[in-house]
Amino acid sequence: MKALAAALLVFVAACGRGKAIFNVDVYSFIAGTSKDTVHYIIPPPPAGSATGSQVQKINLPPGFGSSIVDTVRITNGSANLVTTSGSGRIGFQLYVAADSASTYNAGALALSLPDTAVSVGPPISVTISGDLSGAVNALFTQPTVWIRLVATGTNPNALPVTGLQGSMILTALTIRVIVEDKIF
Amino acid sequence: MRTGVVAVALALLVLAPLRSARAQFSFDARRYGMGGVSLSRDGNARRFNPAYRALKTNSQATGTPKFSIPVPLGLIDFFKKHPINQLSHDSIFDPKSPAFNPFELTNLIFNPPIFYEVKKSPLPTNNVEFTIGKNQLIMNLGGSRVLIPEQDFGLGSTSRLFDAGVGFAGFHVGVMGFLQYDAAFTLDSALRRALTDTVTGLQPGDTLSLLSDAVAQAGLAPTVGFAGRLTHGADPATDDGLYLGGAVHYYMGATFGRLTGPAQILVGNPIFGTTPAAGVNDTLRTSNKANGRGVGGDVGLVWVSGPFEVGVGANDIGAELTWSDTKLQHVTYNTTVGKLVTTLDTNHVESKTKLPITYMANAALRMGTGTTVGSDVINSGRGTVIHVGVEQRTGPFAIRGGVSRDQRKKMQFGFGGGLRLGPLGLDVGFFTHSNSLSPQRAITMATAISIY
């Protein structure tokens, strides 16, 4: 991957001033694997809230280490919430960090979407979009970033005792990274 | 290192077409105003046509100055914008500077700022966009796609580094130094598609190839030549007549090298998630000793009839050098260590190389009305350049115009004027050129003081 991207960037270097835009189809890297599904089990009160998550590494073209990232935006994202028991609310969060462990730091939170009411029944489709926090922009100049997809849930109901259970199944996730080009 | 990689890439893309203009760089603003045509009987004329040795380089007859002193308005402007005491920190030369742009530096190298750039060709300024998926890589280079060569490209030239000798009775004995190089590159269809196709882009399993064939050789050549007048007009005191020139060279090659083969990237399947392989499988021939030998020759004709002059000359006809002691090596890329590895195949074998035939044809018509029309066609090893120009003199004033077709086969234009007062002249010539990394032409104003 690095060799290919680096070699092609030699030619891209012939593009003068401007911006480099990367549309990274994250979903294509995790589709069909267990990584595209975040299971959630939200216990009844008094706990009433919990999270489930999946961590995924993303490879990016190298050579942008000295570049400045303008914006990082999710341009196309969606997930299906499939609830198998109980009811409550499920939200989506995205954490971004330089390594796997750091995605669990609070400072790695890049995007948080309002929660959605869920209950047993047909899958509920939610749209994932928005600009990521500027605090994580610099990470996208590195050849590798780690992301953690999080389903956050609240369960106000005492029954069923098994709590609110289900899965957030990613169906699309494209991240658009706009970089002030300073290749090499 | 990174800057070097960029520079190599830029060179591969554009050096060849630029080289021609550089090789013909002149301080003569008059020439620029006439679209690049040269009416001089020395310089290129003598270089390509040995018959010109028999003709006087009479500047009165040809109307050309003895020499020109450039007025370096471009340099003044350059150093005003880039103070000489701060060049080491100037962003144009500092790859670490956020404002560094390799295009700007490349354009500077191939457009030495001697003369003033009236209209600079804009640097490619556009966004580039990548679409990256597990099995997808599409690059949209925007307007810069025009820089991706459609056909083979490269750089090459045959130069005579010096040509010294003595002459008597039309004969010339001397020695010249020769240098010939040619590097040709071809992007295969998959690589070209990867760089230009914004819908399909890279395909899994693609083999992206850059095919190269590069040769360089240099040495000395003792020379025996003759140039004489075969016929003359009614008045032998004039230049009228037919002139013939020829020279035989005994080439003594000092060194040569030739590299042929592809550099490849084998795209994985899927594109991302598998490691692509880099492949180099080239053949390298080099000389062990300075023992290249061969014979070749130059020939030329010039016919002068009153105001009309026409000449044609060709160099290095039949010049094939035999190198009796060379070695053949294979150059491969070792993916384990990430380095190029050279292995000896055969040693002490014979190899042959050729010098390309270069040529020039020129014509000039000097009318009694002060009008001079000239043209030349030059091929110095890679591509033909054509110039056509006209000058109209009225008293001390002159106006000029011309067109040319450069090695990129692009039309260029020139116009200008001059004022001559006795032995001194001031000339201004405007000319378009495509010496920059841009599809758009630039316009340069050449200014010079001419001594007649």
Lay out the secondary structure.
The complex is a heterodimer of chains A (184) and B (452).
Chain A lengths: L1 H11 L6 E7 H5 L6 E6 L6 E11 L8 E18 L1 E11 L11 E11 L4 E4 L2 E2 L12 E11 L9 E17 L4
Chain B lengths: L1 H22 L5 H5 L10 H5 L10 H4 L4 E4 L2 H9 L20 H9 L5 E4 L8 E6 L2 E5 L12 E16 L2 E17 L1 H8 L10 E26 L8 E26 L10 E11 L4 E14 L2 E10 L2 E15 L4 E16 L3 E9 L4 E9 L4 E11 L2 E9 L5 E11 L2 E10 L8 E10 L1
Antiparallel strand pairs in B: 1-20, 2-20, 3-4, 5-6, 6-7, 7-8, 8-9, 8-10, 9-12, 10-11, 10-12, 11-14, 12-13, 14-15, 15-16, 16-17, 17-18, 18-19, 19-20
Helix pairs in contact in B: 1-6
Brief description of this entry?
The complex is a heterodimer of chains A (184) and B (452). With 184 residues, chain A is mostly beta strands. Chain A has 2 helices and 10 strands, in the order αβαβββββββββ.
What can you see in these coordinates?
- The complex is a heterodimer of chains A (184) and B (452).
- Chain A has 184 residues and is mainly beta.
- Chain A has a single domain (2-180), classed as Jelly Rolls (Sandwich).
- Chain A contains two helices and ten strands; from the N terminus they run αβαβββββββββ.
- Chain A has helices at 2-12, 26-30; strands at 19-25, 37-42, 49-59, 68-85, 87-97, 109-119, 124-127, 130-131, 144-154, 164-180.
- In chain A, strands 1, 2, 4, 7, 8 and 10 form a six-stranded antiparallel sheet that branches.
- The longest helix of chain A has 11 residues, at 2-12.
- The radius of gyration of chain A is 18 Å and the shape is elongated.
- Chain A starts with a helix and ends with a strand.
- The model of chain A is unreliable at 10-16 (pLDDT under 50).
- Chain B is mainly beta.
- Chain B has one domain.
- Chain B is built from seven helices and 20 strands.
- The two termini of chain B are 49 Å apart.
- Chains A and B meet through α1 and β1 of A and α1, β3 and β4 of B.
